[in-house]
Amino acid sequence: MKLDDKLFLVRFNTDKLSHIKINDPEVCLKQCQDKPCTRICPAHVYDWDEEEKRISVGYEGCLECGTCLIGCPFGNINWNYPRGGFGVSWKNG
Ligand code: SF4
Ligand code: SF4
Known about the structure:
GO molecular function, one term: iron ion binding
CATH topology of the domain at 20-82: Alpha-Beta Plaits
Structural class: alpha+beta
Function: Could be a 3Fe-4S cluster-containing protein.
Family: To ferredoxins from P.putida and C.tartarivorum, ferredoxin I from A.vinelandii, ferredoxin II from D.desulfuricans.
CATH architecture of the domain at 20-82: 2-Layer Sandwich
Largest sheet: 2 strands, antiparallel
Bound molecules: iron/sulfur cluster
Domain 4Fe-4S ferredoxin-type: 18-51, 53-82
Number of strands: 6
Pfam families: Fer4_ETF_QO
């Protein structure tokens, strides 16, 4: 089964509060040239907003895989599991 097909089976119970925060937006702007978070997240949660000059975080689609925590070279992502009852639920394993 392809990844896109698997993602189709994923269900979310979205919290109003984001479980992901950028610690220091200035680091993204001035120090992080490559912005790997915009490429490594399988759910495309992170996007560079050229107008606002900051990373936008679409936390609602987070798959809770933890990749961004390892992939941010500046440790600039404050990630916690969503509150109980919220977040992703997987079907068929
Ligand atoms: Fe900011 Fe980290 Fe993303 Fe770089 S990888 S843009 S420091 S959150
Ligand atoms: Fe994306 Fe995984 Fe980080 Fe969620 S935990 S934002 S899915 S890389």
